[in-house]
Amino acid sequence: MREDESYQPDATLGEADDEVIETANMSQTNVGHLRAELVRASQSSIVNLTATEVDVRMGVVVEAAAENITANQAMIGAANGEEIHLNQSNSFLVNATEATLVKSNVVAMYSQSVTQSDSNVKLLIARGVSGGPLRSTIVIAGRVDGPVETVFDTPRAALAGLLAGVGVGLVLFIGKLLVGKRKGR
């Protein structure tokens, strides 16, 4: 294995010779594909990352698969791992056994256990959620310990359904009136 690999912008590393890099320390670098045991990236962008442990600071990763992923002020498109820690970070899709969110935003998350603080998750599916407050559009969880702020609570969901029914009814009624007048001519 190679350690502290020297990186060139837009390089493909760790794939050409099917070798896994032991440690990759990156700063202000762009990489296409990277396979390594340990990745530390600062102000870097990586398209496809496969590793055992990942630490990203102020960087962008399109797709990451690792046992442990830690992101600080970073953006990760899709993160798949055993333990994922997001601190002031954004992610589109997170799939983890254990996830920790601190002041982070996620579009969709599936996890066995989520511990979070002051974070936003649009769609959250988990066995257990703790911490708070959690702001979410949809929460599907076996157990929630802490405050949850949803966009649609039960009264608002009932009101939204009622208003949608009235709107559809009016459109159908007006459509029937217009069609009836055309047939009468």
Which key features would you list for this structure?
185 residues; 2 domains; alpha/beta; disordered N terminus; 1 helix
What does this molecule look like?
- The chain folds into 2 domains: 11-152, no CATH class; 153-185.
- 17% of the residues lie in helices and 63% in strands.
- It is built from 1 helix and 11 strands; from the N terminus they run E-E-E-E-E-E-E-E-E-E-E-H.
- The chain has one helix at residues 154-184; strands spanning 11-13, 21-27, 30-42, 45-57, 60-72, 75-87, 90-102, 105-117, 119-131, 134-145, 148-150.
- Strands 1, 2, 3, 4, 5, 6, 7, 8, 9, 10 and 11 form an 11-stranded parallel sheet that branches.
- It starts with 10 loop residues before the first strand and ends with a helix.
Topology:
Blueprint: E1 11-13, E2 21-27, E3 30-42, E4 45-57, E5 60-72, E6 75-87, E7 90-102, E8 105-117, E9 119-131, E10 134-145, E11 148-150, H1 154-184
Parallel strand pairs: 1-3, 2-3, 3-4, 4-5, 5-6, 6-7, 7-8, 8-9, 9-10, 10-11
Question: What is the helical fraction, as a range of percent?
Answer: 10-25%
Output the number of helix runs. Answer: 1
Shape: elongated
Specify the oligomeric state: single chain
> What percentage of amino acids are in beta strands?
over 45%
Order of helices and strands: EEEEEEEEEEEH
Largest sheet: 11 strands, parallel
Separation, N- and C-terminal Cα atoms? 84 Å
Structural class of the helices, strands and pairings? alpha/beta
Give the C-alpha Rg: 23 Å
Q: Give the overall pLDDT as a whole number.
A: 85
Low-confidence runs of at least 5 consecutive residues: 1-17
